[in-house]
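Predict the assembly for these two chains.
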Amino acid sequence: MALTGDLSVFNFADILQVLAKDRKSGVLLVEWKDIVIAYYVKDGELVFARPVDKVFRVYTDRDFDKLLDKLRIKKEDLHKTIDKFFLSRIDNKEGIFSFTPGFIKYNTDIPVFYPVEELIMRASRVLTPEEVERKISDELLVFERNKNAEDILPKVKLTEDEKKVLELVDGNRSVADIRKASKLDSLTVDRALYGFLATGLIRRKKKEKTQKPSISLDLLAKIIERIKKL
Amino acid sequence: MKTIKKIKIVVAGPFAAGKTQFINTVSEIKTVATERKTTLDKEKDVKHQTTVAMDFGKIRIDDEHELYLFGTPGQSRFDFMWEILGEGALGIIILVDSTDPKTFHEARKIINFFHSRFPVPIVVGANKQDLPNAWSPEDISFALDITDEEDIPVIPLSAKNKEEVKDVLLKLLEIIREYIS
C-alpha cells in the first residue's frame, strides 16, 4: 500500500510517527526541489540517507551491507548522513515523499545514533503554527502520560521548556491550563505537545462514554438483518 | 396512522471524502441533497458541487422504523451543522479519502469534535481503497493518532461498492450492540 504525500501537509514528525508505530522497514524517498534523497528505515528507525540521481537506483541495491560497501561508508559513520541529509532539511516543507516497504535486506547490527523519537521531537520543534494546529486543535483538549512513557523518555533529549510542559501533563490540565501554568509562549507549548503525542509520550485522555444508545437489542438485531439483505 | 420511529446514523468527514456517495450507495430513496457549487478555488479543483447543509438517505427497517443516514458538510466552516446533526445519533461514521493525507488531520479534528460532544460509537471508513495510491487502513489509523483505548476501527472501503458500504454500517452496528449488551 502506498504511503505518499506532500511534506507541506504531512510533515516529518507525522511520517516518522507512522513508520515508528508499525516498526516499518523500507525506503522513504523525498523529492525535494533541488535533490532526491533516499532515507533508509529499519524497524521504524532512520538509519541512513543518501542523495540519488536516478530513483531506480534505490531499488537495484537490495542488500544494505553491500550498498554500504559499494558506497564505502562505515557503519559508525551512518549518522553523519542523517546530519547532512535529514537534520539539515528538517524545516524544509517543499517536497513530495513516498515510502516503499520491504525490498531491502538489512542486517541486524545497524547502529541507531538518533532514535526515531528524538528525530520526531526535533521535527516538532520547527513546526509552523498552522501545522501545530492540526494536532493541538482545541485548547480544551486534555492529555495524559502513556503507560510506556518512561521507556520512551530516555530516547528523547528534551529541552528545559519541553520538560516543563511534560511535567504539567497530568490528565486533568487542558492545553489552555498548560499554556498558562508553563508561562511559555503558546507555540512552544503546542510544539512540545505535538512531539509528545507523535512519540507516544502522551495520549489524549479518553472520554468516559456515558451516552448509552437508546435502542433495544431486538430492534438493533432487526436493523443488522435488514442491512445484510440490502 | 402509525408513527414511524426514525433512527439516525451520522456520516461525517473532511471535504471530498465521499460522504454523499456513501449514502447514495445504500439509500433506498434518491438521496435528498443540499448541494451547491463550490466557491473556493482550492475546493473547485477537487469537485464542483459540495454539501452545504446535509444529505440524507433512508433505509426502511419495518413498518415502524426507518434508518436515516445523515451526511454532514465537510468544511469546518459548517461545523454548526455537525452539532445539529450529531444530536440523538446512534453512532457516527467518519469517512476519509485514503489517497489524500492532507485531510487526515482534518479527520482527526472531526473525530475530536464528535467524541467530545456525542460519546457514541464511532468507526472510520478508509474510502477510495480502489485507487492505486490509497494509504492502508493501518497507516491511516496511525496517522489519525487512534489509540487502542479509543476503540475506533478503521475499515477499508470504496463508497461505490455496496457490500463494502454495508460492511462499514454493520461494523458500527456490531459495536453498538456490544455497547448495549
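Strands of chain A lie at 4-6, 26-32, 36-42, 45-51, 95-101, 143-145, 202-204. The first helix of chain A runs from residue 12 to 21.
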